[in-house]
């Protein structure tokens, strides 16, 4: 059995990536299982999605503890949630990271011996689609590691899964182009043996326990006002940018912001608190003068 774990953020398509991979395996004649685990169900929040593929019926349930392959769709999760990303991972486990290879520094997370595969999936999606939706790219790189899945099965799976969202044919074709590009850029590598004794990689950071640990029911709030101390700006995949010359000071962005991440100065002009803005872009949608633009987070 092959077990793949996807780590992403809400809005990147981690759940769809696992569905595409599962559908690809099914079309290739394998048994398939895919599902996701959500923390905070909102854009930018960490999401984990799982796919199991096997030539025999699958009788296992629950999260994948010992993945053969990990696809990390947002490189900030390496430092924000290493306890989840590296759980059950050893030095041979392929870790496909969506990042710019030129700026990636494994030493910054003290994991230089990990088996990283660096591919800029966001750049591929931006070039061919015009946004940072990378579900088809993530599914394609995972499929490249599985010999039983060939490109025709992958492409049919993409068409099948995206058709359920009533996407126009042109957009589906663009997503297919993204998948082909990502597939070609992925090296041919073997998967780790998830039955071998494991020596888990350790991060230098102190992190919460694994998401599915039965020892902890969830985060513990120990005192009031602690939300301000939790900087969630790195949840963003996109950021709002305000052109004050167009702003009419209608206050709609301030009123509609669900995170209270919009502040007003002494002249009642709005400003974004980027430490806490999660990039939901409600302010962009509500602005009547188009003073707030949508920018891809770098």
Per-chain topology:
Elements: E1 2-9, H1 14-27, E2 31-38, E3 46-54, E4 69-72, H2 77-80, H3 82-85, E5 94-98, E6 115-119, H4 121-128, H5 135-144, H6 151-163, H7 169-185, E7 238-242, H8 252-256, E8 262-264, E9 270-272, H9 282-286, E10 292-296
Parallel strand pairs: 1-4, 4-5, 5-6
Antiparallel strand pairs: 1-3, 2-3, 7-10, 8-9
Structural notes for this entry:
The protein is α/β, with parallel strands linked by helices. The protein folds into 2 domains: 184 residues, Pyruvate-ferredoxin Oxidoreductase, domain 3 (3-Layer(aba) Sandwich); 71 residues, Alpha-Beta Plaits. The protein is built from 9 helices and 10 strands. The strands form 3 sheets. Strands 2-3-1-4-5-6 form a 6-stranded mixed β-sheet, covered by helices on one side. Strands 7-10 form a two-stranded antiparallel ribbon. Strand 2 and strand 3 form a beta hairpin. Helix 1 packs across helix 6 and helix 4 runs antiparallel to helix 7. The longest helix is centred in the middle third of the chain and has 17 residues. The radius of gyration is 20 Å and the shape is globular. It starts with a strand and ends with a strand. About 2% of the residues have low confidence.
